[in-house]
User: Fold this.
Amino acid sequence: MKALNDSVPPKRDDGDFEQIYLKHFPFLVSIAVRKFGVPPSEAEPLVHEVFLSYLKRRREIHDVHAWLLGGICHASRYYWRQFGRTGEMVEIEELYEYAAPESHDIRNNLPDALTARAVLDSLPPRYGLILRLRYYDGCSIAEIAEKLGVKPKYAQKLVSKCIKKAEKTYQAKGPKACPPADAPNKPVSPSS
Amino acid sequence: MPSSRRAEQARLAEFLETAERLKNERAAAGAVLEVVEATPAEAWPSLAERPEFQTNAALERLSDEVRRRLDRNPREALALSELATATADALPATAYPAVTLAQIRAMAWKDRANALRFLGRYDEAFDAIARAEQVLEKHVALGLDRAVVDLVKAMTLVDVGRFHDAQTLATTCGSVFLAHGDLTRALYAGEIEAHVLYEQRQYSDAHTLYRSLLEVAAAAEDAVEQARLHNNLGYCLLHLDNFSDANIQFSNAIARFTDLGCETEITRTHRGAGLLMIAKGQVRKGLEHLQRARELFVGAAMFEEATLCGLSIVETLLSRGDNEEAAAVIDDVARQFVGARTEQRLIDAVATLQQEIAISETPVEAVRNVYAMIESTTARL
Assistant:
């Protein structure tokens, strides 16, 4: 039997790096955010790392778009696996740092950020994503609509619906139902 | 300017700067292998100190060279991979973005693991794989690099007989390669799965999988893989007692290796096919393959390997009572071996065998003893 080695001969070179980066970056971020529920603040550095890894592999890549797409899908899954291990999805300090001004009410109305996180985590992934976009990433309704690929009017409806759902969940569980501060917090892994 | 915009611009600048740097380094790394060639192997570790070796491009060249030497001279491949890991590990943390640096180091350790695997030093190979995994672990985006390391790990697991683990890993990393559009490595992963089936004596299933992989290799226009798959199909067919189709597959493999100029592969195909055919009772055809392999080894001045082929022929002839022809072959083998630059004790052993075949009551045993002696020496070289 012929033994394998893992060498792959060089195949094709690609040209304009800036164009490749600018052309694919927003699309890859939207895949990480919308398909896999990676927080936008994490998705951008993640996509950037995929681009950097592409540079070393570019000699063996046939189809840049397919390669980058495969890269971000795999990276997003691995991202969730890693956070699954550490039990941290979004750092508390980070939540405050990136919270939009209009999110203060939400934060103040809830007992503390941990409870907010627990409530968000108990929501279906899409609900959690919408609330994070609106209240932690400071996205406008128009930006949320663009990221979700829906009309702004519908995006507004979705945000309202998500708030209601979050309030309902919070009232149903109550502060006692929330995990203690040092308990590992398991994010819901997005489906692929 | 908002901070998010500044971050975007900084990322783009880092990407473009890294792209430019890697490109320039690749253009300037041409002389690295010439320096390696001009340096005695025992002095290779000192090359890690030289600035021209301390770039990604230089390490890529070394990596290509490690793979090129794996088959022909795995000890040299290992020495080069040790140079590569020493150089990669010594690169300062600021030399490249952290992701790129992790890729550089992990691939160097992966190559080292592969060289150790070729030398049968499996514990050290697994240690090297663990180093590569450790380097990659913190980088979420390096899924393909992790899969490449997993591929070598799966091959090593096959070599140590951990077939189930190998199959699981090959399936997982195969899907990563496919997701990245990396058909060649996906093919390699598929071959590991087929190899596991072969090792588990599921020859029909292995044959089916190899066939489908052959179609993929043809679609990908990967001539080397096609040749290798024809060869492996030949092995499966021999075990399925389909000798005529097996011969066709071996012929296809040899024809493709010939087109590609892969002399060593042609010889190995003849030798492997010959040995297995004889074991399956296809003695005449098997002897033809072995004789051809022997001639090719002599042509390449690989006298130990040529002698091993000759001894296999002698053993087969003796087993079927053809002592006269066996004696003629051993005379020829001994004559060729005298000219070889090898250990005198091996030459003496073959010379003694000439007499033993004529007088010994168990000449086959005598042939096997000399075969084992030469084989163990060849493995050490």
Summary: The radius of gyration of chain A is 20 Å.
